[in-house]
Structures are given as structure tokens and as C-alpha cells.
Design goal:
This protein has helices at residues 6-17, 23-36, 40-46, 52-63, 77-80, 85-91, 113-123, 134-178, 184-207, 382-386, and strands spanning 93-99, 102-107, 126-131, 221-225, 240-243, 249-254, 265-269, 275-283, 292-300, 312-316, 324-327, 332-333, 339-346, 349-354, 356-359, 364-369. With 389 residues, the protein is α+β, with helices and mostly antiparallel strands. It folds into three domains: 72-131 and 154-236, GMP Synthetase, Chain A, domain 3 (2-Layer Sandwich), CATH 3.30.300; 248-316, no CATH class; 324-386, conserved putative lor/sdh protein from methanococcus maripaludis s2 fold (Beta Barrel), CATH 2.40.420. It has a five-stranded antiparallel sheet, with no helix packed on it. Strands 1-2-3 form a three-stranded mixed sheet. The longest helix is centred in the middle third of the chain and has 45 residues, at 134-178.
Length: 389
């Protein structure tokens, strides 16, 4: 066996810091692992330093990780398929639980960063280590992966056994057919059964090397990709997100109770001044965190949109309001947080006026208080004037 891995070396340094091993003990354990090809927990137990159970308890307590008893833990085959047997055997790990994008993995050595990186690369999930003893993990790996391998081999051998029996049955019937003991139809049925079994065996053998085509149920463009080479996927995993750019919708969060029947028109504004024309589609009836959701269809958009991009929706209800319409560039924010506009008192002298402003459309706001008709208001570069002190 070669030198210890970086994870094993980190574990030896950890045990020295915990005063479990001296420098001489660590060198002896390392030599034993190298010369006799032993796992580090086995070498520690061979040197009578600690059992694998004591090592697991020490790691869990010192690193504040959860200690798992795999002898009483129910192993989910769907979860274990996320990590291949080669990775599980190499790093002595076993996946025990998946929660969204987080995968709980039982390990002998939670200090093995290489193991964490390898599992995260293979599964595309964030790995959270829990601690188990070396003996329990080895037994669990044998029970989980070897059982599945034996079952697969058994299923593949079933057609061979049936084919052998059917061939013998067909040979006997053909001999009896010569003396008219059995009907020719019976022989034909057995021959058809044999052909079907041979075809099934060929399909099983081809399935091991034949790639499987993935076909999306809808047309569109690929928005996100969550595929990694060598990844093991389950039925619930989303590999590709496919969207139709011509069928995007806008969801607006509304914290006020409004009547959707009064919504006549709506626009949305994003990071630019361009207005996106919308059409009201409907709303949710359930209140979610003190807001309801209104859904709009995009009719016209002057700029390309990205899925998930935040926008501000301005809906017109047809209700009469009174105010002064100004460009958005006329409004600034004072140092105290109030909304202000600048009124020209005399040449090169501008006074800030605190106002009440409401959205009007994508390029304008409505001032409902704070100024009077006839005042000269700065409508361009008001934020620049706001910087002058």
C-alpha cells in the first residue's frame, strides 16, 4: 500500500491534537497501514489505541456531528444509488438521507475533504457528513451494493435458465411429434416461446452498453443544466429545465386586497426603462405569507427576458386619481430617506421639496402631494443635484 491519503493524514493529526496518539504512535499506525494494507480504524484497534466505535464517538463529539447507528438505520435504496459502489468503497462512505439538494453521508473520516469533493462532483448535491463506525459502514456497503448486484445477476440469469428448459422441452416434443403423440400446434407454441426468451436475453445484454435517449415532453430551449459525468440520478432529479421563451409569465406579489376585475392594463419594468406590456390572467385564492399572487401574460417585450429576473408590475385599475405626472428622473431620495423633487427658486438655486409619489407607468410617476401646479421642477438629472451640498 502507498502513502496515506490526505484524509487519513488529517485524521492522524486530529488524534494527536486530541492527545489520543503521540508522534511515535502516529508513525507506528501509519507504518502498519502501509505495510499490511489496513484501514486506519483497524490499525488503531490493532495497536490497542481505540476501537472503531470509540473513534466514531470521539469524531462526532469533537466535530459536533451526528453519530449514526447503521445497524438500526433503514437504508433507502433510492438514496444509496446516488453514490456509486466504487466511491463508497474507496472512501468508506454511505449515503443515508437526501433532503432537497443536501445529501447526508455516513463516513468513518469526516476530515476527508477529497471524499466530500468526489461525492459532490458525482451527485451535484451539497454533502453533509455524519459519523458511523468503520465496521458498520463496511457491513452496510456489503449489504446494500452486493445485494443489488446479486439481484441484478439473478435477474439476468433467469432468461438463460428458462431458455435451457424450453430448449429441452422443444427437443422432447419434436421427438414425440414424429410419432404423432403431441400436436404440431403445441410444438409451434413452444418454439415461439423459445424465440421470445432469446429475444429477451438479447435485449437485457444490450441494455448494459446501449445508451438511453432522453426526450423532453415539450419543445423549447434549455434554461438550466444539472448534469455531471458519472452522475447517478433518481426519478425525482431534474436534469434539464426546458422553457418556451414565447410563453413566459409574470407573477406579481400583492400585499393589498385588490379586485382583479378592475385591472384593465398592466406593464412591467426591469433594470431598464423599457416597459413590458402585460395582460392579466388570474390570481391565487390562497394567501401566502400575507401576499397573494397575480399572474400576467407577456404581450410585448422590447428587451430579452431571463427566467427569474425581478420586475416591477404597474397595474391600471381605471380608478380616477388626481396628481402631477413627472418623469422618473425628476425624483430623488434625500439623505433622510424621503422622496424629493427639486423646485427652481431662481437661476442656479434649487430647493428640495418633499413629495408623495406613486408609480404611473414605466417612465413616469404621479406626484399626489408636496408641490403645486405652476412650479418649475427639475425633470432631468435630479439625483445629481441631490449630491450637491
Amino acid at each position: 500500500m502507498g502513502d496515506l491519503t490526505s484524509g487519513q493524514q488529517a485524521l492522524l493529526r486530529f488524534l494527536q491534537k486530541q492527545s489520543v496518539l503521540t508522534a511515535e504512535d502516529a508513525a507506528a499506525v501509519e507504518s502498519l497501514c502501509r505495510n499490511e494494507d489496513l484501514a486506519l480504524p483497524v490499525a488503531l484497534e490493532r495497536r490497542s489505541k481505540m476501537t472503531d466505535g470509540q473513534l466514531a464517538e470521539l469524531l462526532a463529539s469533537a466535530l459536533r456531528l451526528r453519530l449514526v447507528d447503521l445497524t438500526s438505520h433503514t437504508i433507502d435504496p433510492v438514496v444509496t444509488r446516488l453514490v456509486k459502489e466504487t466511491i463508497a468503497t474507496r472512501y468508506q462512505v454511505l449515503p443515508v438521507r437526501v433532503d432537497g439538494n443536501t445529501l447526508d453521508v455516513a463516513t468513518v473520516n469526516p476530515l476527508d475533504i477529497d471524499a466530500m469533493k468526489a461525492i459532490e462532483f458525482a451527485t451535484s448535491k451539497r454533502v453533509h457528513f455524519v459519523v458511523a463506525s468503520h465496521t458498520e459502514i463496511q457491513d452496510a456497503i456489503k449489504h446494500t451494493y452486493r445485494l443489488e448486484e446479486s439481484l441484478e445477476q439473478f435477474l439476468q440469469n433467469v432468461p438463460d435458465q428458462e431458455i435451457a428448459l424450453t430448449r429441452s422441452k422443444l427437443a422432447r416434443q419434436e421427438q414425440l411429434l414424429k410419432t404423432n403423440v403431441v400436436a404440431k400446434a403445441t410444438v409451434d407454441d413452444t418454439r415461439t416461446q423459445l424465440d421470445g426468451l432469446e429475444k429477451r436475453r438479447g435485449e437485457l445484454l444490450a441494455a448494459k452498453v446501449r445508451p438511453e435517449d432522453l426526450r423532453a415532453p415539450v419543445d423549447g430551449v434549455i434554461a438550466t443544466v444539472r448534469v455531471v459525468a458519472g452522475q447517478v440520478v433518481a426519478q425525482i432529479d431534474q436534469l434539464f429545465q426546458i422553457i418556451d421563451p414565447a410563453s413566459l409569465l409574470v407573477e406579481a406579489l400583492v400585499f393589498d386586497q385588490i379586485n382583479p376585475d378592475t385591472v384593465d392594463d398592466a406593464i412591467a419594468t426591469g433594470g431598464t426603462d423599457a416597459a413590458i406590456k402585460l395582460k392579466f390572467m388570474g390570481r391565487s385564492r390562497a394567501l401566502q405569507q400575507q401576499y397573494s399572487i397575480l399572474q400576467f401574460q407577456i404581450l410585448e417585450t422590447p428587451v430579452p427576458l431571463n427566467v427569474g429576473a425581478p420586475v416591477t408590475v404597474i397595474a391600471a385599475t381605471g380608478e380616477r386619481v388626481t396628481g402631477i405626472v413627472l418623469p422618473r428622473s425628476a425624483v430623488a431620495q434625500a439623505p433622510n430617506g424621503q422622496t424629493v423633487v427639486f423646485s427652481q427658486k431662481e437661476p442656479e438655486v434649487f430647493l428640495p421639496r418633499t413629495v408623495r409619489a406613486e408609480p404611473f407607468d414605466g417612465q413616469s410617476v404621479m406626484i399626489t402631494g408636496g408641490i403645486t401646479p405652476g412650479e418649475k421642477i427639475v425633470v432631468q438629472n435630479a439625483p445629481l443635484i441631490n449630491q450637491v451640498r
